[in-house]
Give the backbone structure.
Amino acid sequence: MKVFIKRLVVSDFSSNCYIIGCNETKESVVIDPGGDSGLILRILKENDLRLTYIINTHGHIDHIGANSSVKKTTDCEVLLHKEDEKLLTDPVLNLSSLFMRDISIDKADRLLDDEDVIKVGRINLNVIHTPGHTPGSICLRIDRFLFTGDTLFASGVGRTDFPYGSHEALIKSIKTRLLILDGGIIIYPGHGEKSTIEKERLTNPFLT
């Protein structure tokens, strides 16, 4: 099975938004639409993809900013881990007030938990709960691909100086939930370029 993966760098936060599609059924999911809804919708249309879900890896503004506009146009469902539910509706917790935007977004249509499986066509997205950056931060695994949000970056890890952040929890999540995976798995982070589990296991300065 071939999986359609398109990375878009969106908003003035330069966040990674990923469009994942099943090439057989044309069902798709958008991970972290942080902004630029017009661009996201155009890519979906150009590739004849039908959007089923928006999945937020966590509830910060740079990853949820275009939730409402994309949902309104496509009538898809928004999925988020249950521990980050309150971030969507609270401008202080989702950090939008920090940037003078005060954005409150409707609650998620479905709340996720660890080890949930999200089916999109013939694709299974496996939820891995990785608290630390936020209490409800998740990673999403599709076979050899891992979408890590703001938990793990190429040569970096997520910040923990925001409300409810915990550096101890973040490092524990990475070491016990991610670094134990096969080294050849490709990491697609919430910011920056992709990497692999093996490379981060061996060279990430925050994990040695």
